[in-house]
Design brief:
The chain is globular. Helix content is about 35%, strand content about 20%. By secondary structure, it is of the alpha/beta class.
Length: about 290
């Protein structure tokens, strides 16, 4: 076996279970530091999977909404928190493309942006996003080759992409002068993995729809291969001590009201995790190396 990113044979088993495939495992490459699921879905399996994507996330307990309106409302609450982390990069920006835009909740927040493009494979979500965007595509391959954007962003989308280097090269080709790429992904140095080595969490965490799980090192590697440079890194911890204690105590998601009452105000804990880069999510801001 070779690493699907750098082709190295220096690979170790990282975890022996993937949530939705009993025959798959998680491996880590010792050269580029990418963690990856093997075997990956075939193109046919991937296409069929995303046709049933909503059923999958409902099964995992990620969403339980019954309508696209309800999904948009919940997504906007998440988008508002995300925007607070990166809003300074959108000052003066006039054109934005979001890949994996869902219902357009993040795009709705960009009131001062003149031109917004939504790329979203789900038909219902993409149609809904017309309220907040001027152009909509189901895939990056459909976008006009001449389109240029001040910012291209992906939030919890990049880890779904089976060819990340090719995706970044597409982004680079569609960046305006001094344009930026902003990416948020789940972080392999999630404290429940890196600090607490919680088996139940890892059994739940790794799944087929995420062929790759990134560290800063592996993000830097794929950026370098795409001839782009990371200019800013932001470590962000979304879940607090109450969530972590619930996993360690009960071995399952869903939270615990008692822990929440005891440890709901845990800013120091979250700040410490972010300081040391041990977070459940990581943002990078990058730009093209072209002159």
């Amino acid at each position: 076996m070779r690493c699907p990113i750098c082709s190295s044979k220096d690979i170790d088993v990282f975890h022996d279970k993937v949530w939705d495939n009993e025959n798959a495992k998680v491996y880590r490459c010792n050269k580029c530091d990418i963690s990856f699921v093997y075997p990956q879905m075939t193109l046919k399996e991937e296409k069929e999977f995303y046709l049933q994507y909503k059923n999958h996330v409902v099964k995992r307990g990620v969403i339980s909404v019954k309508s696209v309106n309800e999904l948009h409302h919940k997504s906007k609450l998440v988008a508002e928190k995300r925007y607070q982390v990166i809003k300074k990069f959108f000052r003066g920006v006039k054109s934005v493309c979001e890949i994996g835009s869902a219902t357009g909740a993040f795009l709705e927040l960009l009131y001062d942006v003149n031109y917004k493009c939504a790329i979203e494979p789900d038909n219902e979500n993409r149609i809904y996003s017309k309220k907040f965007s001027q152009k909509q595509y189901s895939d990056i391959s459909e976008a006009d080759k001449s389109e240029q954007f001040d910012i291209i962003c992906m939030f919890h989308t990049f880890e779904h992409i089976r060819n990340p280097i090719k995706c970044l090269e597409w982004c680079k080709s569609h960046l305006a002068s001094d344009g930026k790429i902003i990416i948020e992904v789940p972080h392999i140095k999630d404290p429940l993995i890196e600090l607490y080595d919680c088996k139940e969490y890892k059994d739940f965490y790794f799944q087929m729809m995420h062929p790759y799980i990134y560290s800063l090192y592996s993000l830097t590697y794929v950026a370098d291969q795409s001839d782009i440079s990371i200019i800013k890194v932001i470590y962000k911890q979304r879940y607090g001590l109450d969530n972590h204690l619930n996993w360690l105590n009960k071995g399952k998601p869903g939270g615990d009201q008692y822990f929440k009452e005891l440890f709901g105000n845990n800013k120091q804990y979250i700040n410490s995790l972010e300081k040391f880069g041990l977070t459940d999510t990581i943002f990078i801001v990058a730009r093209s190396n072209r002159i």
